Amino acid sequence: MKAGVEELTSFLADHPDVEYVDAILFDLCGIVRGKRYPRQDAKGLYENGMQIPFSVFLLDVTGDCPDAGGRGFSDGDPDGIAVPVPGTLKRVPWARVPSAQVLLTMTEQDGSASFLDPRVVLQGVEKRLRDDGLHPVTALELEFYLIDRERMSDGGPQFPIAPDTGQRDKNTQVYGMWEIESYAAVLRDIEYACNVQGVPCYTASSEYAPGQFEVNLRHVSDGVAAADHASLLKRVVMGVAEKHGFEATFMSKPFTHMAGNGLHIHLSLCDEQGNNLFDDGSDTGSEMLRWAIGGMQATMAEGMALFSPNANGYRRFAPNLYVPVGRTWGVNNRSVAFRVPAGAGPTRRVEHRVCGADANPYLALAAVMAGAHHGITSRIDPGPANTGNAGEHLDPDVPWTWRSALARLEGAEVLPGYLGAEYLGLYHATKTAELEKFQSVITPHEFAWYL
């Protein structure tokens, strides 16, 4: 659905100081792209949409167009029409000049949805679940680091200067309240910006490294909205961090000997009346919950290139780091890939713990929902729940390198039926080109070892 011009008119009347409207979308890599409209020109965006090349959704992480599937240079780089999503026009609290932003979705020239938009990919998967009477309730958790804006001599990141001490932060106090208090000003402004932008954040916690935090989002009964919230949260965190003199990174593994950044996806499924189909009154959940986990296990390997979309992401996976190293599941157990959290029956859900924080939220959630649906319709038994430490050894049947993950995606049997074979082919081509470009660089480490 396209937002009407009356939404813009009302917003501008309520915010007479706003000078610009940023029209934004999230590409294949989750990078924010778009155009900035002066206030007086924003009406045209709502009336006619924004002409922008389809290839903007097929850029690699450096912004290069690899001409994936002949889309870009080969086809003359045609435009589609990006249109505003209703209800997403909000102020940008951290902007230097009074500004607003609106989220866009991509359409063909005839107004039909474009399959190249990751948001549209997720819409298609969610519709398939709803058509079968399975209504997702979901939330995405994101971990991130606040780092010093000044890099090390080798280009690597530095831990931030703690605001309360003025010294380089060295504290690793998971759930530490002193760390929350030390960074209270930036965390407060993140909360404020989320409230302004309709992003339902509600708790923050310190994580396993200096300057590392997690911000939680409330569960919603709309998977696309949940992915919108996660994507917008990343934009909020980066914008607010910069305002406070930090840089924020969602890179999966920015520090070799410290915890990585994860994206944890919480999912339950309800019936038409809102009853949780994963709840049967037990702590382990219903048979349907176990089938959903079985499907997630069955699709984990072919989805790794979506869950961990770059070379750095595979550094995050190692034994005994509270990071999944196999297709494991368990109840109230953080060492597994698919965790059933403790809690009251109506909240019974699966926490998918595989993704890095730099995964595209739309594509990651689409793959998780696809796995759950596949498991339910095929009634896949996940096997017995893991107890104790399930994170001691890497599962040899899961690809733990970027190249092997892309190979498994190329040969995927389940996910193409959900996310679309053509889309996944273009994703594979784009990321393979990115991998080859990455591999072409001679690193300082190679000079140190081999010169």
UniProtKB/TrEMBL annotation:
GS beta-grasp domain ranges (all copies): 16-111
Classification via SMART domains: Gln-synt_C (SM01230)
Record GO biological process: glutamine biosynthetic process; polyamine catabolic process
GO MF, one example: ATP binding
InterPro entries: Gln_synt_N, Gln_synt_N_sf, Gln_synth/guanido_kin_cat_dom, Gln_synth_cat_dom, Gln_synth_gly_rich_site
Residue span(s) of domain GS catalytic: 118-451
Extent of the signal sequence: none
Keyword terms of this UniProt record: ATP-binding, Ligase, Magnesium, Nitrogen fixation, Nucleotide-binding
Taxonomy, superkingdom: Bacteria
PROSITE patterns, alphabetized: GLNA_ATP, GS_BETA_GRASP, GS_CATALYTIC
Cofactor or coenzyme needed: Mg(2+)
Family: Belongs to the glutamine synthetase family.
Role, per record: Catalyzes the ATP-dependent biosynthesis of glutamine from glutamate and ammonia.
Record protein name field: Glutamine synthetase family protein
